[in-house]
């Protein structure tokens, strides 16, 4: 019995391209050729190809299959390791489905972590604010992330939010002076209502100082010079009490 590459692939339920790839990586022996130059596959090739396909369908990588060789009795350690790996993958996919459900339900940004996405969606953040949240989520400690999410989810909106987001670079001095005066009371109330979020991030993996430095660097890049000037003036107002 002899089959062509196409016939062998069809019998095994795979593709000609896969058969050729298995030749290239040394998993499937290259058969002899007929007088016309075409490969001539036999039963041994089909059996080997079916075993490769079966192990690949179970989740083994080609390198793992190669390490097993021709042995029909695969080591229990390899099977147990694969089972654990598949279990971890299933759990990761389960969590991903839960997170996708929350994103769809809350119309939340898909690029934010699960702890912050629903809250950020409820807050209706601008693109710059979302970028800020994403950066901070990578440096804050777990307790601070929870407190930060509470602010995003529950803090009342303020009319000045939109004004700050749309501040042009060439805003007049009167605007630079007036807007901080109107924004400061709202920020002061948030600080008073959410002291946990405003306190130093003592459980941050790289320390509170790194969190503060990252926040400053992110604002410097995400805000235009006028917005940064307004932020500095708000800080001065709050410092004066």
From TrEMBL:
Which residues belong to the signal peptide in this entry?
Answer: none
What are the alphabetically sorted keywords of the record? DNA-binding
InterPro entries, per the entry: DNA-bd_dom_put_sf (IPR009061), MerR-type_HTH_dom (IPR000551), MerR_fam (IPR047057)
Record-linked PROSITE patterns: HTH_MERR_2
Q: Can you give the residue ranges of the HTH merR-type domain? A: 2-71
Database matches in Pfam families: MerR_1
Give the protein name, as stated in the record.
MerR family transcriptional regulator
Task: Please name the source species.
Answer: Pseudonocardia humida
